[in-house]
Specification:
heterodimer; A: five-stranded parallel beta sheet; elongated; B: 16 helices
Chain lengths: 529, 545
């Protein structure tokens, strides 16, 4: 775990303000601490030893009250400011990382926990730990100089003990690394599992296994707890050690001051002042330690997110001219291991191509690759001679319609799903539904994460209909006629034919004879097995 | 509970040690200034060291114990939350987005950890310690003590309680915004392919930023309020110090307070300021804890909505007078279906006619009126042991093929699982294959679902379009497997491949939510125009081969 990541600082603009603000308020607070200690020591020693009445102590009393007020205010401002700028920086980073992920071809199961709680955890790093690092250098030096002016002996104790803290912290930080990685993966795992179980709830209920999953959650939760406790124990032990170093150092100073007081080599006012001030010298360093441990979860999240940001291609080549053909040039696709042999094929405008082959042969994977959503293992998909994977995706996707086997329709009404962000009138929506045989479906029908109310066949047809509302040149459809009745199948075939006749490149994964028959050509996948 | 009490005691000891350290130290220095024989300071010197060590040790103990207790409580709570979700079923959890559900079970439950670590433990310890400190101060100098008590009462109790009331509504909104943002993030993560193609990524990012921004504003306001509460705590402590000094200095002069005690009177409220701030912090934490608790209660109070399966004498499945409503409209009504043992019955109709609603009701996934009865099995068995099923899109869990199969039946030998996979043409799928990392294709998932369903030896089997996503050859094989494996059970199947149904015992044609024609294949050809046309269309297309 690096104590300071320049990449992170470079990427989070708003944190500069946070650092400046925290450091400034921290310095004000430290100065007030000096005044506070000096005035309190003056008050006590003058009243106690010189028996001065309250009336003659007006100045130190006022100084003390003012310093106390200033310090309280500075600390409060620091807290609020740090939180505010921390939240801002975190929101900005979340946008950047989410955007990089959304436009990348990566798919990571820990992405959701990373974007939600992982990025949240970065707040401590940005708004607390980083500024504290600056204060941990400035404050001890400043206060130490002040103490040196007043009492050389104490300054020597400070000079010897203070360096112990960073040395010790480095040692502990070294241990933390592995523990945090484990914790993160345990927490990621349980988050993933809960999402998976929730999505599969209907299946679990069918097999009466839903409640039994509580044991799985309990077991994973216990794993995560152990991993978290391991991290916490290190963190608690480290702050214990730092506190002990500080306390023992102050005790040594107190003893020295006490002994010199009894022999009259130091006066009470100076002794008290130093003693009140001494813990404040160690405090910024101890806080760095504490906040380092609080920040490690965020740092771990950051380490996971960094490759995404670095791999993020800002913009690609812009697609030139209208699309005239799409071709596979020695295309091998698959996830990690190849599913298909090297494919060579040319799809012309105004053709409807059916991809056939046995279940599991890689038809859907080929479709994703053709869309430019999955990088080829080798070879390329090109359009107008340009590689699809190097195109600027915004422009390219304007031409593409893609319907996977289980289409996503969002969370809202049928109308929302059809419009999918575009502006479409109710008439247009109804017309599009007519084309896929969904005349009777009300536009207000609700669509949910669980496919209740709207059947899967209907969902697939809504997904098709929404591309009818857009002008697509390339349509990539995974079994568009699965789970629909004969009439709707006929309607969908008509729609595909209409697309084809308009000059689109239509590519479908097909199992049903009717769809294969409707195709102008068939690409049969034999697979590499 | 024991751990919580231990943590409270340790926290109180931490606070007390901190106060002890400062006050003893101050007294020691003051006393030393009077140049007494060293021996008289011995006890104080030892105590300073002891307090110094005990403060750190108790703090360590408190943190380890309270976090341990809180984390273990969270484990139980998450399991409990899941049970509540499972009890309610998808229909009970209707409208809860996946990202929201995860946020509640993970992050909101995590916030509840603060109940122990940031509310109960520090607050209880702070109150105990503060009262002790007040007593000590009153003992030393009564006016100074009363001032301290007043500061504590106002800044440690009154203001935090007030802040708590003001902040509560905002804190709840902050959690809602966080859940909204997380639901959008989850959707973006899970469906980014389609969002990219549809050009919805930017809009989704804008939505996420908006929710993040709304939360930011709420949280900033909350931080401001919480900061003010702490500021009041600090200022009140300052007033207690200044007031204490004003009261104590004359007392020193008139001799009613020993000189070295002046330092104690001054530094006691000083070191106790962290005790008062602890209460202010606990109040802000309590706000978050209560808001999170309210969101969890939403889940914990969900009620199961599905009626139980009725027993009956005769073997087989019987559905009578079944009706399912979606959003105040009957999706299906007056459905009567009899599937005696050894019979195969099909449910066909246009997509959207209501087949899936009937299936969902029979499987207990939605609430319904009417009865679903299963006979031939003794007693009050759960639905799952009576009815097994292949849903329309079987969910494949992110784990091994083995665990996905065992989900239906529990721990059985690998040999049996292997055979189940071979039977549905999944011989190439290793039992150890992690289906989260190396996902199955749609057709393979469909067949794994079938293998899973066939493993369970229930008298009734429901198949919702079991041959979708399969090529013609594989589909035919799957139908053969179904025939072989289910000859002595009651089979209820929906399909659009009507030509598969020629030897079914009974076919029900559903139109607009109700059964309009029932009979054998031949009878339906006569009785339903839709059925006849669909079969003709299908045969026509097949003939073109």
């Amino acid at each position: 775990m690096r104590p300071l990541d320049p990449e992170l600082i470079r990427r989070s603009g708003p944190i500069r303000g946070a650092v400046v603000a925290t450091v400034l308020t921290g310095l004000v607070s430290a100065t007030a601490a000096v005044v506070q200690a000096a005035s309190a020591a003056a008050l006590i020693s003058r009243a106690f030893l010189r028996h001065q009445p309250v009336t003659s102590l007006g100045l130190p009393l006022a100084a003390f009250a003012a310093a106390w007020l200033l310090r309280s205010t500075a600390n409060t401002v620091q807290d609020v400011w740090a939180r505010r700028s921390g939240l801002r920086a975190v929101a900005a980073l979340r946008q950047e990382i989410a955007s990089a992920y959304a436009r990348s071809d990566a798919s990571t199961s820990t992405m959701f926990p990373l974007l939600s709680r992982g990025i949240d955890a970065l707040e401590v790093y940005i708004a607390r730990y980083l500024p504290q690092l600056v204060l941990a250098v400035l404050v001890p030096v400043g206060l130490g100089a002040w103490i040196l002016r007043n009492d050389g002996w104490t300054a020597i104790v400070l000079a010897i003990t203070i360096p112990l803290i960073p040395v010790f912290m480095a040692l502990i930080g070294w241990f933390t690394d592995a523990a945090v990685t484990k914790q993160w993966s345990a927490v990621g795992r349980i988050t993933d599992v809960i999402g998976d179980l929730f999505t599969g709830l209907p299946d679990l209920i069918i097999f009466d296994r839903a409640r039994a999953q509580a044991d799985v959650i309990r077991r994973l939760g216990t794993d995560a707890t152990h991993a978290t406790m391991r991290v916490l124990r290190i963190s608690f032990l480290s702050s214990f050690a730092l506190e002990l170093i500080a306390t023992i150092s102050v005790a040594i100073m107190a003893l020295g001051i006490g002994l010199r007081l009894t022999s009259g080599r130091i006066d009470l006012e100076t002794g008290l002042m130093i003693l009140i001030l001494a813990p404040d010298v160690y405090l910024p360093l101890r806080l760095v330690g504490t906040q380092f441990h609080a920040a490690v979860e965020g740092m771990e999240a950051w380490n996971q997110a960094l490759p995404l940001l670095q791999a993020h291609r800002q913009s690609g080549a812009v697609l030139t001219g209208p699309i005239d053909s799409l071709s596979f040039e020695g295309l091998v696709c698959g996830y990690d291991i190849p599913l298909t042999g090297a494919l060579v094929w040319r799809f012309e405008r105004g053709t409807l191509t059916a991809i056939t082959g046995h279940s599991g042969v890689g038809k859907s994977t080929l479709l994703r690759t053709a869309a430019g959503l999955l990088p080829p293992l080798s070879g390329s998909v090109s359009v107008n001679g340009q590689h699809v994977h190097s195109l600027d995706e915004r422009v390219w996707f304007e031409h593409v319609g893609y319907v996977p086997q289980e289409p996503w329709l969002g969370h809202g009404s049928v109308r929302d799903a059809l419009a999918a962000g575009a502006r479409s009138s109710d008439e247009e929506c109804r017309a599009a539904l007519d084309l896929v045989g969904l005349q009777g479906l009300p536009l207000d029908a609700r669509i949910d994460d669980f496919s209740g109310g709207v059947s899967i066949g209907q969902r697939r047809r809504i997904a098709l209909a929404r591309y009818r509302l857009r002008n697509c040149d390339v349509l990539l459809l995974d079994e568009p006629t699965a789970a629909v009745d004969a009439e709707s199948e006929a309607a969908i075939l008509e729609l595909l034919e209409a697309w084809r006749a308009q000059g689109a490149i239509v590519i479908v994964v097909a199992h049903r004879a009717a769809l294969v028959k409707a195709a102008t050509s068939v690409l049969h996948l034999g697979g590499v097995r | 509970m024991k751990r919580t009490i231990l943590a409270v005691l340790a926290a109180a000891a931490t606070f007390a040690s901190a106060i002890g350290l400062v006050t003893t130290g101050a007294w020691l220095i003051s006393e030393a200034a009077l140049r007494p024989p060293l021996l008289t300071l011995e006890v104080a010197i030892v105590s300073v060291r002891a307090f110094g060590i005990s403060r750190g040790s108790f703090r360590w103990l408190e943190r380890v114990v309270s976090h341990d207790a809180a984390l273990h409580e969270t484990v139980q709570r998450r399991a409990h939350l899941w049970t509540a979700l499972a009890k309610a079923g998808p229909r009970g959890a209707w409208g809860l987005r996946t990202g929201d559900a995860i946020t509640r079970v993970m992050q909101d439950a995590e916030l509840l950890q603060d109940r122990i670590t940031r509310v109960i433990v520090p607050a209880a310890a702070a109150i105990v310690t503060a009262l002790g400190a007040v007593l000590l101060q009153v003992h030393l100098q009564s006016l100074a003590g009363l001032l301290f008590l007043a500061a504590f009462a106002v800044a440690g109790i009154l203001v935090p309680l007030l802040a708590h009331r003001v902040e509560f509504a905002a804190a709840q909104r902050a959690l809602v915004e966080r859940a909204t943002m997380n639901a959008q993030l989850a959707a973006l993560v899970s469906h980014k392919d389609e969002m990219r193609v549809l050009g919805l990524v930017d809009a989704a990012l804008v939505d996420i930023a908006a929710a993040d921004g709304r939360r930011l504003r709420i949280e900033t306001r909350a931080a401001l309020l919480s900061g003010l509460t702490q500021w009041v705590a600090l200022v009140a402590s300052g007033l207690a110090i200044v007031g204490g000094l004003l009261a104590a200095i004359p007392a020193v002069l008139d001799g009613s307070l020993q000189g070295p005690h002046l330092a104690i009177v001054a530094l006691l409220p000083w070191s106790a300021s962290e005790v008062i701030t602890a209460l202010a912090l606990a109040a802000s934490a309590l706000v978050r804890v209560r808001s999170a608790g309210a969101r969890l209660a939403d889940i914990e109070t969900l009620e199961p909505v599905v009626p139980a399966v009725q027993p009956r004498e005769q073997a087989g499945l019987s559905v009578q007078g079944l009706a399912v409503r979606w959003e105040d409209v009957d999706a299906v009504h007056d459905i009567d279906i009899e599937v005696p043992r050894g019979h195969r019955v099909a449910l066909v109709g246009r997509s959207g006619a209501g087949k899936s609603s009937v299936v969902s009701a029979v499987l207990g996934l939605v609430e319904y009126r009417g009865t679903v009865a299963v006979g031939g099995a003794a007693g009050d068995l759960p639905r799952a042991s009576l009815i097994t099923a292949v849903p329309q899109a079987p969910h494949i869990f992110h784990t091994t093929a083995r665990e996905n199969l065992r989900m239906a039946i529990g721990a059985v030998p690998d040999l049996q699982l292997r055979r189940a996979l071979d039977r549905v043409g999944l011989a190439h799928v290793e039992l150890d294959r992690d289906l989260g990392r190396m996902p199955l294709s749609g057709g393979e998932a469909q067949r794994l679902g079938l293998a899973r369903a066939l493993l369970l030896d229930a008298p009734v089997i429901v198949l919702d379009e079991p041959t979708e996503h399969l090529d013609e050859d594989t589909a035919a094989e799957v139908m053969r497997t179904i025939h072989d494996q289910t000859w002595d059970r009651s089979v209820l199947m929906t399909t659009h491949r009507l030509t598969d149904l020629t030897d079914f015992d009974c076919i029900h044609v559903i139109e607009d939510g109700t059964i309009v024609c029932s009979g054998t294949f031949a009878e339906c050809l006569m009785g339903s125009a839709w059925f006849r046309e669909s079969v003709e269309w299908r045969l026509d297309k097949a003939r073109l081969d």
